[in-house]
Amino acid sequence: MSGFDWPGLMQAGLRGLALRPAEFWALTPAELRVMLGEAQGGAPLVRDRLDALMQAYPDTRGENDDE
């Protein structure tokens, strides 16, 4: 069974990064990886992907927005 190395991650977060337990447990795995310097750059956002995101999540005006 593969999974997270919780003892290793906790030691890295609590001892290595000096996080408080609540701060450690509030992190996502991705955030912890960034803090540990293990983040791997993903592919850059290309125009086609940006266009798809803009179509899926269009900007809309709310009733409190300026006209």
Q: If you had to describe this structure to a student in words, what would you say it looks like?
A:
The chain is an all-alpha fold. It has a domain at 1-38. The protein has four helices and no strands. The protein has helices at 6-16, 21-26, 29-35, 47-56.
Sequence-ordered SSE layout with sheet pairings:
Blueprint: H1 6-16, H2 21-26, H3 29-35, H4 47-56
Class inferred from helices and paired strands: mainly alpha
Shape: elongated
Share in helix: 40-55%
Give me the strand/helix succession: HHHH
Unreliable stretches, pLDDT < 50, 5 or more residues? none
Question: How many helix segments?
Answer: 4
Total strand segments? 0
State the separation between the terminal residues, measured CA to CA: 56 Å
What do the pLDDT scores average to?
85
Radius of gyration, in angstroms, nearest whole number = 19 Å
The proportion of residues in beta strands is under 5%
The biggest beta sheet, please?
none
In short:
The protein is mainly α and 67 residues long. It contains four helices and no strands.
Provide keyphrases for this structure.
mainly alpha, 67 residues, 51% helix, elongated
